[in-house]
Every structure is written in C-alpha cells, then in structure tokens.
Specification:
The complex is a heterotrimer of chains A (276), B (269) and C (294). Helix content of chain A is 82%, strand content 0%. Chain A has 276 residues and is an all-alpha fold. In chain A, 40% of the residues are buried. Chain B has one domain: P-loop containing nucleotide triphosphate hydrolases (Rossmann fold, 3-Layer(aba) Sandwich), CATH 3.40.50. A six-stranded mixed beta sheet of chain B has the order 6-7-8-3-9-10, with helices on both faces. A four-stranded antiparallel beta sheet of chain B has the order 2-1-4-5, with helices on one face. Classes of the chains: A mainly alpha (276), B alpha/beta (269), C mainly alpha (294). Chains B and C meet through helix 2, helix 4 and helix 6 of B and helix 8 and helix 9 of C.
C-alpha cells in the first residue's frame, strides 16, 4: 500500500513516529529492567521449589475433594457460638473505638486544637495505634487479659480508635467554617461550638465510617481466634489442624454468608444515612 | 450498490426506523435530514450493525450483511466506517494511535494488543493525516486538538479502515460553522477522490443542499422524501419537519440524537 | 368556599405531618431497641467485663513496660545496638515480608486487570462471563486472607509462598471490584467507535478502555501496597514466614525487648513504604498517563 521511497521520505520527515527518542528509550529500558529485576528477586525469594509446588497443587486438589459435602459434623452449637462471638467482638470493638475516637478526633483536629505540638503528637499517636495490626494487638491482649472474646474486642478497638480518630479529625477539619462562626458569634464556648457547629456537619460522615468499620471488623474478627482471642477463627484453626475439611468448608461458607449479609445490611443503612 | 430493504428497528413500543427501503449506488454522497428522533442516527447504526435490525435486510453488492456474526461482522464494519457527532476519539491516546486504531481488524490480535504497528502502517497513517494537514500533530494527545481537528482525525481513522462506504452521523453538529465547512469539505474530498459512498446525517438544510447529490428526508422512522436537492421545496420541508424552513432556523432543536442512549453498541466478541 | 378548601389542605397537611412524625418516632424506637439488644447480647457473648479490664490494665502496662528497651544516657548507641541485636536477621525477614506483599500485590493486580473488563456491566462480552467474574471477585474478597493462608500453609508447607498466594487472591478480589467500577464509568464513545471500526473485544478493551482507566488503576494499586505489606507482616503468625513468624516466636518465648524492636521495625517499614507510594502516586498523576500508554 505504500512504496519504499515514500516510506523513507515519511520516515525522514517524522522520525519520532517510527522510533522513540534515545533518551526516552533509555528511560523506558531502565524502568522495565528495574521492575523486572525486583519482580524476579521477589519471586526467587518467595517461590517454593517445583516439587513442593506440584505437591502442594495436588494437596489442594485433595482438600477440595475432602471439603465436599460441607457439614457441621454435629458441632453446630459450638460453631454458631463462635460466630456469635465474632459478631459480638465486631460490634463491641467498633463501638468502643467510636466512643474513644470522638473526643480524640476533636482533639486531633487542627481547627479545634490550637496547640500545634499537641495536635502533631496526637496525630502520630493515631498513626502508631493503627500501624499495628489487630492480630498483633490480639497477641498482646491475650497475654494481658487472658484468652477469649474480650481480648478480641480490645484488639479490634485499639487500632480502630487510631484510624477512626484520624478520619474524624480529617472530617472535622473539612467542616464549613461559616456555620461554626455563626455559633461563635452567638457567644458560645468551645464545647458548645463543637456540639452545635461541628457535630451536626460531621455526624453523617462519622456514622457512615462506623458502619464501614463494623463490616470490616466482622471480617477481621473471624480470624482473631487463631491466636486465642475468641470467635469463629478458633473453631476454624482447630478444624484445619485436625484435618476436618468438611467442617472447614462449612465454617468458611458460614463466614461468607454472614459477611455478605452484614455487608448488605450495612450498605443499605449507609446509603440511607448519606441520603438523609 | 447498497440496498436497504424494509429495514425496521423497534425499541420497546417505539419504532425508531420503520420499513425503510433505499438503494444507494456506488460513489454517491447522500444526505439524510429530519427532526431529532426521526430515526436518522438509528438508520446509520443499523447499517453498521451497531444496532441489530428487528426486520428487513441490508444487502451490499449482492451480499446480505444483516445477519453476519463474529469475524464476518467485524469485516463488514471495517467496510463501512463510521464518523460520529462527538468524534469518539480515545482522548488519552495520541493522534497517531487513534488513526492506527482503524487498522485493528486488518491485523493479528496479539501484535495489536502490544501496539506493534508496522512501519508501513505508521507511514500510511502519516500520509492520511497529511491529507488533512494534521501530520505534524501525530504525536500529540487527541484531547489537545480542537473539535474540527479531532473530527478530521476521525476521518483519517475511518480511511485507515480502507472502507467501501462512510457513515457520518451528524459530523458537524458539534462544530462551529467554519470548522463544519472544513470537515464537510474533507468528506466531499474523499467522496470525489477516493470514490467512497458517503451517507451523512445532517441537521442544517443548507449543508445538505450544498454538499449532497441526493437527499433523503425522514419523519417518525419513515422515508418521506427521496430526491435531488432541487426537488426539496418549501412544502416538502414543511412535511419533513412539521414546520417551515424559516421557523426551522429559529427552533434549534432539530439537532441531537435522541436515541443514542437506547442504542448501546454491541461489541463483536 | 376557598376557606373550606384551605382548611381541608391544612387538615391534610396536619394528617400527613402526624403520620410522618409517628413513623419517624417508630423508626427511632425500633432502632433504639435493636441497638440496646445488640449491645446487651454483644456484652454477654463478648464477655465484656470492666472488672477484668481493670485487672488487665496493670497487666497491659506491665507488659508494655517490660518490652521497653533499657537505653541509658551514658551509652545510648551501645544500648540500641543491644536492643536490635539481631537486626541482620530481622532485616532479611522484613525484606521477605515486603517481597511477599510486593509479589502478592503484583499477582493480585494482574488477575484483577485480566478480569475486571468481564466484571464491568457495560463491557462484559456476555452474561455468564460477567456473572463468573463478579462472583469470583466477591468470593476472593470476602474470605479473610488468614483463612487462605491456613489452607495454603497446609498444602504448600510453611513459608512465604502461602502468604503470597493468600494476599494475591484477596487483593485480586478487592482490586477487581474497584477496577470494574472504574470501567463502568469509562466514556462509551471511543468504545462505540472501535466496535464500529470492526475491532474485536480484546482490542476494544486495550485501545478504547485501558487508556482511560489506567491512571486510576495505578493509583488504586499503589494505595493498597502499604496495606498488603502490613497484612504480610502478620500472616507469618500462622506460618507464612517473614517477620511475623519471628514476632510470634519472641512473643511466645517472652523475649520482651525483641517484641518492641520488631514491632517498631514493622511500623517504620510500613510508614516508609506508605510515603514512597504517596510520592510515586503524585508523580504519576502529575506526569499524566500519556507516557504510560505510549
């Protein structure tokens, strides 16, 4: 469709259409090399040998076969109690975190907290709390208050306090100033300003965050039992240790169903809160 | 020769295109006029098969194309290139790639996905862009161009398909008069120089009279006029639009493509 | 006549207003009762016990106190060296953990990228592939990572590979959903243009959709990398290797200063990655995606 002479002429007139500039090619080559090198190194560190891999795949196939059909194996009572514990942990953990996070959030907001140093310190404290995973907190609390769901509640509440306080503080920093000034002009003190000027604006945001955290905590709470902090995770880890794969499958399906229901309910509630 | 025989398309209870029968000889430049919602846009989309016909047939050079599937359907779409009111370029890609997109059906999937276009294809894209004075913009992002330039890029993309006919759906409705003229001139050029059949939906009667060999008027999905521009008299205009030409200029509601939302494109797998 | 009509309107309004108020009061009452019931039930089932908490608080403080390293003003560097006595081993384990997060992130993002077009309602080539992709992502997202790790440790043996697979699966689900939502907001006009030009489905995705969505994809992907590293750091607790395994070991052996040393190491590493990703995201957003797609 195009002659060699014409091709050469177009090539000469528009070299960049056919080939990137040398600098760009070099940059691309470097970026790709770096990326592939990191990936190759990572794979080399984490991949098992071929034999282990093949054996593992075979084992996985067996597992799936052993999982069918899922049954409760006559332990329905214990399993359901574990599930109830999980939900209780998620609910209480979120609630405790919320109760602690509201005053902390106000204290950590720049427009409420005038002392720069305190504001900065609080923000770093929030980062520290949420930087440690709830599973690590669970290990700590099991050591401190003993095994059981109570340790799980605390393990969920502490990192969530950090995250929620940070989110609340950000929401408070983003409130509309005029409304707060209106309250201030009426001669109010700091607490009244927070209560009537800021809280009405941020309450829907806070509630929506809380529901989202309840959803996410339901998921987290299912696994804390692995380290002894109560909930269905203990049942699950036990079954895996004992090779009861039918019951493992039953518990996983139960978790899936519960999480799906909670997501659905909380999603509807959140939409209603945002719409209102 | 493109033959449309009893072509009908219903959306629910609405009949967008109602038993349209037309024969378009090779190399003709045909304009389609009518109010918004008259079925002009759906008619073009039916021909390209972006919209499936409810009834009727589309026959191109003796071959029925109204029931093609898969590969054959994609080949037919390559044969009838479309030009859109909103240009429909990929804004974040450069002009060159937007033009090369017209070659996708001519090449292997894997080399396409990796964007390995050959030197010949790149040269052909530049040559085509050069016809519309856009070769220098080849490496710019499409969203840096003006509307008129973007529509000319879209025409270049259409030409890269090496099509047999061009279906232009309100190509100048989103452009100012000056750019509209540039784009219409470009369409006439490819009609005259490349001998391509051009079917063009237009919302201004002047443009249709000035550029088209033949004008088809549609109302409520039916063809109510079919003739040369000179035959388009005032009573006929009133019949097509339900108002006189002088009112038409004031009522700027005749543009738009009312059925665009209803006719989502089907992507051939 | 008009007055009577007006009275009727007022009466109707009053009636409606009362009904609305009744309904609102009822909703509030039901909500309060439900909340109280949930609170009571959770308190009982969750063994919420202020007395135990009160008794536990000294324990917690004591525990934290014990983990604090002894750093004297006289020779602080030597003491810090003492505290981080196994820094070489820990750094290597931390590297494993970061790599676990990285490979898991890349693999998960790859899977999400491959199937997110099927999971978008406006792009799916057919109904069943849409359904399969959607349900697959949902499943992968809902099962907690730790459950996957438990299963994969059983199959592949202890080690980071189980963690990588678990992170990849969970991440594919979470990211796949986000990607599909981005896809559903893509401009339909280029898609129509490519279909009209006779391009196939995969080519349409590549040229009409991907250039539009890629910047968002990258931004979402980087956002979650830090979270994945944090997750990887605890997966070791159930046998996925890396720093988490070492942490669990020192906790169970009550080697207190090591606990704080490792926790601090994790915190600093995750914070550094967070900052790095943030900078990368900003530079990507500023540079624009033209370069990334060409």
């Amino acid at each position: 469709m195009i002659g060699a002479a014409e091709l050469a002429a177009i090539r000469a007139a528009h070299p960049r259409v056919f080939r990137r500039s040398a600098a760009e090619r070099l940059r691309l080559a470097l970026a790709w090399t770096l990326f592939l090198a990191v990936l190759a190194f990572g794979l080399w560190r984490v991949l098992p040998g071929w034999e282990a891999f093949a054996a593992g795949l075979g084992k996985l196939g067996f597992l799936v076969r052993f999982m069918i059909p899922p049954t409760s194996g006559g332990h329905l009572g214990a399993i359901l109690h574990g599930l109830a514990e999980t939900l209780a942990m998620a609910f209480m953990g979120t609630l405790l975190a919320a109760v602690a996070a509201v005053p902390l959030g106000f204290a950590g907001a720049r427009n409420v907290m005038p002392v720069r140093l305190l504001h900065f310190g609080l923000r770093r404290l929030f980062d520290g709390l949420r930087g440690i995973d709830s599973l690590i907190w669970a290990i700590l609390f099991v050591a401190a208050v003993g095994m059981g769901p109570f340790a799980g509640i605390l393990a969920l509440a502490v990192p969530d306090t950090g995250t929620l306080a940070k989110l609340f503080a950000e929401a408070i920093e983003n409130v509309e100033k005029r409304q707060v000034e209106g309250i201030e002009a009426a001669g109010s003190n700091a607490v009244e300003r927070a209560r009537f000027g800021i809280l009405p604006q941020v309450l829907p945001v806070m509630l929506s965050h809380l529901l989202y955290f309840f959803e996410s905590n339901t998921r987290s709470a299912t696994i804390l039992g692995v380290v002894g902090a109560g909930g269905i995770g203990l049942q699950l880890a036990e079954r895996i240790r004992l090779d009861d794969w039918q019951e493992v499958a039953f518990i996983i399906l139960l978790i899936l169903a519960t999480v799906a229901v909670i997501d659905w309910v909380s999603g509807r509630l959140r939409r209603r809160i945002i719409a209102a | 020769m493109l033959e449309i025989i009893g072509l009908t398309r219903r959306f629910g209870t609405v009949t967008a295109v109602d038993a349209v029968t037309l024969a378009i000889p090779h190399g003709q430049m045909m304009g389609i006029i009518g109010r918004s919602g008259a079925g002009k846009s759906t008619l073009l989309r039916l021909i390209n098969r972006l919209v499936e016909p409810s009834e009727g047939r589309i026959v191109f050079e003796g071959r029925d194309v109204s029931a093609l599937r898969g590969r054959a359907l994609r080949d037919w779409r390559t044969d009838c290139a479309m030009i859109f009111q909103q240009f429909n370029l990929v804004q974040r890609l450069d002009v060159l790639t937007n033009v090369l997109v017209g070659r996708l059906n001519h090449r292997g999937t894997l080399t396409s996905l990796l964007k390995l276009f050959t030197a010949e294809e790149r040269a052909a894209a530049i040559r085509t862009l050069d016809r519309f004075d856009l070769a220098e913009a080849a490496l710019q992002r499409a969203d840096t161009l003006s509307g008129g330039q973007q529509q000319r890029v879209a025409i270049a993309r259409a030409l890269m398909q090496e099509p047999r006919l061009i279906l232009a759906d309100e190509p100048i409705a989103s452009l100012d008069p000056r750019n509209g003229k540039v784009v219409m001139d470009a369409l006439r050029r490819i009609n005259r120089e490349d001998g391509l059949t051009v079917l063009c939906n237009l919302h201004t009667l002047d443009t249709a009279r000035q550029y088209c060999d033949r004008i088809v008027g549609m109302r409520a999905g039916r063809v109510v006029f079919d003739g040369i521009p000179a035959q388009l008299t005032a009573p006929i205009v009133r019949d097509i639009y339900g108002m006189g030409e002088e009112d038409l200029d004031r009522a700027e509601t005749v543009t738009g493509t009312g059925l665009e939302a209803a006719s989502r494109p089907r992507i051939a797998a | 006549m008009a007055a009577i009509a007006g009275d009727a309107a007022v009466a109707r309004f009053e009636e409606r207003h009362r009904a609305l108020r009744r309904r609102k009061a009822l909703t509030t009452a039901i909500g309060t009762v439900l909340f109280a019931a949930a609170f009571l039930a959770s308190a009982i089932v969750g063994e919420l016990d202020p007395a135990r908490l009160a008794a536990g608080v000294p324990n917690i403080l004591d525990y934290v106190h014990r983990t604090l390293p002894a750093i004297s003003a006289r020779q602080p560097l030597t003491d810090i060296g003492e505290w981080y006595w196994a820094i070489d081993v820990w750094l290597l384990l931390m590297l494993d953990t970061v790599l676990m997060g990285l490979v898991g992130t890349l693999a998960g993002a790859g899977v999400a990228l491959l199937f997110c077009f099927h999971a978008a309602a406006n792009l799916a080539p057919n109904r069943w592939s849409f359904w399969v992709a959607r349900r697959g992502f949902e499943f992968a997202r809902t099962v907690p990572e730790l459950v996957f790790v438990l299963i994969f440790v059983f199959a592949f043996g202890p080690g980071p590979f189980a963690g990588v697979v678990a992170i990849a699966i969970h991440y594919a689900g979470a990211l796949g959903k986000l990607f599909a939502e981005v896809n559903e907001n893509a401009d339909p006009r280029p898609i129509e243009a490519l279909a009209a030009a006779g391009a196939g489905w995969s080519e349409t995705m590549r040229f009409a959709v991907l250039p539009q969505v890629l910047p968002n994809f990258l931004s979402y992907g980087l956002l979650r990398f830090e979270i994945n590293v944090r997750a990887a750091s605890v997966l070791g607790i159930v046998g996925a290797g890396g720093i988490g395994e070492e942490l669990y070991l020192v906790v169970r052996r009550f080697i207190y200063p090591d606990i704080s040393a490792i926790v601090l190491l994790i915190l600093v590493t995750v914070a550094l990655i967070d900052m790095g990703c943030e900078r990368l995201r900003h530079s990507l957003i500023e540079a624009g995606p033209a370069r990334a797609t060409r």
